[in-house]
Amino acid sequence: MLEVKTWLDSPVGIHLGYAPAMQPMPISALILLSLSATITAQDWPQFRGPDGQGHTSVKNLPLAWNDDSDNIEWKVPIEGLGWSSPVIADNRVWLTTASEDGTSLRALCLDAGTGKKIHDVEIFQREKGGKIHKKNSHASPTPILDGERVYLHFGTYGTACLSDEGKVLWRRTLKYSHVHGPGGSPALVGDSLIISCDGAKDPFVVALNCKTGKPRWKTPREDHGDRRKFAFSTPLAIELKGEQQVVSPGAGGVSSYHLGTGRSLWHVRYPGGYSVVPRPVFGHGLVFVSSSFDKATLLAIRPDGKGDITDSHVVWRMKQNAPHSPTPQLVGDELYVIADNGILSCLDAKTGKRHWRERLGGDFSASPLHAAGRIYFLDEDGVTTVIKPGKTFTALAKNEVEGRTLASLAAVEGALFLRTDTHLFRIAASEKQH
Q: Which of 65, 151, 231, 378 could join 71 via S-S bond, C-beta 3.0 to 4.6 A?
């Protein structure tokens, strides 16, 4: 029988306040538990928040705003271009950026309360910038905070670790050709930094010692025979029967690896899938992944098998309006899936049955956020649609700021952080929105 650690069973789940009356959400607490005690469940230390799945326990967030509203506490320009999402801890916001030509790759640290710049550190300097897709940048992977250090990844351009005071502690180069520029973020699990390196050929997954940057293991991807090998997904750690594993989607299929050794535990094929962007989602004993381009399929997989489990452990598939780029959002028994073309579907997570489908409008790349009893969906033109979770569609607000928006939202108590192509916003809750 499948044993899954749930929020209700974990210190993190109890701290986040998930009551027994709610659906026991079986998602990994490994990453948050591995961070320093100075990181709390109300910080936003990595891509998709404290649990890596878009949830936070904060209660007070803005519902409505625009460029001219009093909710905008500050708006600061960010030099260069980067699509990394902001991360926040200890009243500091970290993000990365790059010069327009990609020759200078930098880490920025701002005061979360005022927007004042604290650090601006050049991490890598290159003679020539690499090729990037029009929806990418040279600084797209999101940093990770552990309370003492900052982990930065720029794809094959380099990976580094900074002290909280901005001193470079180590640098590492992982050689692979990521085709459209750097994309997927690392995952910090225990004392290992897990990175999916899915390039034009010979893709692999690697674990780096987070203290030294030295490789612990490096595992080649299963060869599914697909012509396109590249992908941009972020791994997710889960735990089954006391065994830690890391789920990492790639081109042609998704694989899970033993955290300690890198040994491949299981894999599921999705022939033809490539340029995979969404991060896995874990709940109800199922892993949810998308095959991304060109024709996305969303799969629900039981992760308790061994070897090739394509024919035995895929519980359901969704082929219509599946996401190429945004990660689905699991809330209770429902899975909310926003397609790149703005069609939002609400599904029964266990069966894949659709409860409703609505067109939000716009194009979407950013992943959603669940907090304060709401779900926030940010499109590529600065428009955030806020809905109430449930088996019927209930829109609460639609908000707009000026600018292009491909990075995902971040949240702390009382405020959202929204990055555009030119600025970083701190958007606060007003008294009427509490």
A: 65
Nearest one of 187, 178, 382 to 276, comparing CA atoms: 178
- Rounded Cα distance between 169 and 162, Å, is 5
Q: Is residue 200 part of a domain?
A: yes
Residue 309 backbone dihedrals phi, psi, to 5 degrees: -115, 20
1 part of a folded domain: no
In the numeric block, which tokens belong to residue 396? Answer: 């609460």
Amino acid identity, residue 325?
Answer: S
Summarised one tens digit per residue, pLDDT across range 64-123 is 999 888 899 999 999 999 999 999 999 999 999 999 899 999 999 999 999 999 999 999
Contact 355, 348 (CB under 8 A): yes
CA distance 159 to 192: 13
Cβ–Cβ under 8 Å, residues 264 and 311: no
395-419 pLDDT per residue, tens: 999 999 999 999 999 999 999 999 9
**Domain with 265 in it: what CATH number?**
2.130.10.10
Q: Which domain holds residue 121?
A: 7-433
Predicted TM-score of the model (pTM): 0.92
Contacts of 279 (CB under 8 A, 6+ apart): 47, 48, 52, 53, 233, 234, 235, 236, 327, 367
